[in-house]
Caspase-8 (Trachymyrmex septentrionalis), 497 residues
Amino acid sequence: MGILLMTILLTMSLLMDGIAHSVAKTVININILKQIEDDLDIDEKISILFMILDYANGFNNIFELFKLKIKNVYIIVDYVKNNPENWEEKVLEALCILNNRQVLKKLGISFSVLDLQYVPKLTSYSKSINVIAKCLYKLCESLNESEQKLLLNYVKSEIHNYDPLLDNVDYLELHMLYWIQIGYITISKDKMHNMKKLLKHLKKFEDGHIKLICMELEKFENGLQVVDNCQIFGTKNENYLQSTSSEEPSLIKRHHFRKKIQSINSGLCIIINQMYFMKEYETRFGTSADSINLSETFKTFGFKVEILQNLKKNEMLEKIKNISKDYGIKYDCLFLCVLSHGYKGGIIASDEKEVSLEAIERALCCMELKDVIKIVIIQACQGKTRGTISNSLTTDGLYDSFTPTEDIRQFANFFMFMSTIQGFLSIRHKEHGSWFIQEVCRIFKTYGNQLSFYDCVRKIMKSIREKKGTIDGNQIAQLTEIRLDRLESDFQLKSRQ
């Protein structure tokens, strides 16, 4: 068994063990935390404290530590000694969000393992820390120096007698803790968040990243989603890659929408099926089975289905961009299914040019479709690592060798579901089609008119996780991924047959 395969299997074993054998508690203790602090600058220390603290007394606690102990002391250690609850998990998650790989490497943990466990790039998810704090940290990172000063001026204009102790403090997180203390914004464990005043000022900024964070904060503010820390991808204290039974709560718990589940009365499904390529990429045998399966599945629910074959990069993006013009907008839901080879962060067009996932998102998300539910399903590899092909199995990839937007609303109601996690290959049978598309179709056909979309996604992820196969005599496995989720409500398909 090769070193790569052993590493993958070990990684998967660690993931499946989950929090029952908490990685954090085995790699971090107070003495190690002191060594970690030695490698952190004051900015990183403040950011970590901002994400892990108890917000009821956060400002006073952290500001005193900040004033008295700026250099060569252990302010995180001092805090966790007085607030010991689950501190190891919180610190490890915060380090992951900070993307401090140097420190994580010293801890001897694979970042890919942590990336799966904590999903640091997904703003709307957290495992142990408060998800609003994660959003606000992402906001601090997105604002440049002049934008931070501008935001502070906006807020100070509304707060009389702003604490003079903060006059020369550049750390925006400390100002935010002060805003929490005086009630300007509210973060609480019972999810009664209040961001109205801050959101009013954030909407004045034109930067696309800030607007996306603003959208996430607005969802929490409006109660469109309820975030259960530690429970988004599974039950409490459970890794989202662990197996779940059908009786367990929904895999994606943040979507306890107050709105009723939307019923889909009309839908459009666009399938981009890339089978043939120029030189470097092999013919994707089995993809026709996927294409036919998807077509039959969505026709069952009364969707209009259009199959586009072997598109070059410019053709693909143009077709996606013109969906509203070519097919109209009088439908509740749009599924865009892209079947191709891929690379980390994108897919390959028939002319073997790379098409980023962001380019697909931007081509699809237009003002004409802002109120339409947009689901993108990607069957393609996302890297060169296989979760470890018999001759009948192959993979979708090579393993050998924000411009500003005019209106951020166009990115609403969007969901991207990937056949595999970032950095890994995706398995396809050369006759029957890919594991992922087979399960998407099976679950939708079986449960689509009984369960909501999110519950179907949960079943698909669980089913793929349990699949096993062999390639070149090696055991293989695959894990799906929710890449982006900005849906404003859950929905349910309606069978027309």
